[in-house]
Amino acid sequence: MAALWKEGLATFRRVVPVVPAHKKRFAELDLAIAETCYYHFQSTANQLEFCILREKIGDRAARARMRRIAEEEIELARRQFPIARDQSVIAYEASNHYFYTPLDLVEKVLNCSHVIRELDRQA
Predict the structure, then answer these.
(1) Alpha-helix runs per DSSP H in the chain
(2) Domain extent at residue 80
(3) Total number of domains in the chain
(4) Taking the model in full, what pTM does it have?
(5) How far is CA 110 from each of CA 26, 70, 78, 114, 117, rounded to the nearest angstrom?
(6) Are residues 76 and 43 in contact, defined by beta-carbon separation less than 8 angstroms?
(7) How far apart are CA 30 and CA 47, in angstroms?
(8) Among 52, 59, 87, 97, which is most exposed with the fewest C-beta within 10 angstroms?
(9) Residue 93 pLDDT more than 80?
(10) Half-sphere exposure of 51 (CA within 13 A, CB side)
């Protein structure tokens, strides 16, 4: 799902610059929402794969893949950060509050960095 969504994002990014000025703000928000969805879908897939790989943590190839996943999660969090900072409506749901706060994303980077260090220690 994430891969197909990513393909659609490429098209979306190409058309936003040609949206009429009076609709630009809405198009940019829609793009931010679409990007957030992609980051969420990809992160979900990454977390699932990471959990499956934990069963093989003694295997060097599994640890290497886990490291790459943690690196990708850092990149996803860094890409989501400006969206969460600039678009307060992203991922807000009244009963659960905010899901993507900028500081939560900073914490995610720190946690993933810790995971990478631990995986490197086991290498």
Answers:
(1) 2-15, 24-54, 60-86, 102-122
(2) 2-122
(3) 1
(4) 0.90
(5) 33, 11, 11, 6, 11
(6) yes
(7) 26
(8) 97
(9) no
(10) 6
